[in-house]
Amino acid sequence: MTRTGRKGNHRSRKKRITLVLAPVVAAAVAVPLMNQAGAATPSEVTKDCAENSAKLDNCEFVDVQNKRNSLGPNKRVSTVTDNCGSTTAATKNFSVSASVVRSVTLEDGFVAAADSKLGNSFFEVGAKFNTSEFNLERDDTGTGFDFSRTDTVKADHLGFFMWSEKRTDVSGFLRATYKEEQNGQKVFFSPEEGGTSVHVFYPQLLKNGTPDGRLWLRNVKCGTPEAGGIQNSSRSLRAEPGFEEGGENVSDVEIPLSEIPAP
Fold it and tell me: What are the backbone dihedrals phi and psi of residue 39, each rounded to the nearest 5 degrees, phi first?
C-alpha cells in the first residue's frame, strides 16, 4: 500500500511539470510566427510601389536633393556615313532622331506606370521643379526631335551625330503607407528614410518644346581603333565618349540648338 501511494504521488508531479511547460512551448511557437509577419523590407516596398499593390494606401517619391543641367548618356542619333578611303571631304545627308523621357534609377527592371500612385508622385515632384526658367518633361511619354540635315564628313573619316540631353536629377527615397499594420506600423521606406539613392531624371525642354542638351557632328578617322569599334559593331548603338572626349582620332563640332526644329 505504501508503494501504491508513492506511484500516485509520482503521477501528480508529472502532471504539474507538464502544466508548467505548456506555456513555454506555446511561446516558442509564437516567435517564428511573429517573425514571418515582420515589417516590410526595402525591396518589398519597392516591389509593392512598382506594382501599385492593393496592400498600399499610398506610395510616394520624397525628394531630398536635386541637380540642374545634369547631362545624360552620350547617344548616337544618326546612321554612320562612311567616307573611308576618300581623299576629299564629302557632303552627306543625315537623318537625325532623338527622344527624351522621364526615367527612374532604382532597381533593374523597375517600372512605375504613369497612372499608379508612385507614377503620379513622380509627376507631382516634377511639377515642383518646373519653372519658367526650366521646363521639364514630367511624364513618361516623352518628346524629341526628328529631322534631316546636310553636313560635311572629312576625308577618310566616318561621320555621325551624337546627342546628350540636359536633365534635372532629383534624388530621394520612397515612402509607402500600408492599409494594414505590420509589427505595429503602417509606414515603411525604401531604401531608408532620408536616403538619396532613388534618382528621377526629368529632361529639360527649351521654350519651344525641343529637348535641351548638346548635339554634335562626330568625325572618326578611318583605320583607327575608334573607327574599327564602330564598324565591327555593325554600326549598332554602343557606348560612346562624350563631347570632345574621343581622343586625337575623333573630332566633334557642336550644332546650335536653334538649328533643331521644334517638335
Answer: -65, 155
Instruction: Report the C-alpha gap between 37 and 40 in whole angstroms.
Output: 9
In the predicted structure, residue 235 carries a pLDDT above the cut 80: no
Predicted pLDDT of residue 239 = 72
C-alpha distances (whole Å) from 97 to each of 79, 88, 253, 260 are 10, 27, 17, 10
Length of the chain: 263
- Provide the pLDDT for residue 3: 45
User: Which residues are CB-contacts of 200 (< 8 A; sequence separation ≥ 6)?
Assistant: 61, 102, 103, 104, 105, 122, 125, 126, 169, 170, 171, 172
Domain count, the chain: 1
Asked if residue 48 is part of any domain, the answer here is yes
Q: How large a percentage of the chain has pLDDT more than 90?
A: 67
Q: What is the pLDDT of residue 109?
A: 59
Structural domain boundaries, residue 231: 42-259
Domain assignment present for 126: yes
Whether residue 37 lies inside any domain: the answer is: no
CA-to-CA distance for 134 and 167, rounded, in angstroms? 10
Mean pLDDT of 164-184: 95
Distance (Å, rounded) from C-alpha 198 to C-alpha 153?
A: 41
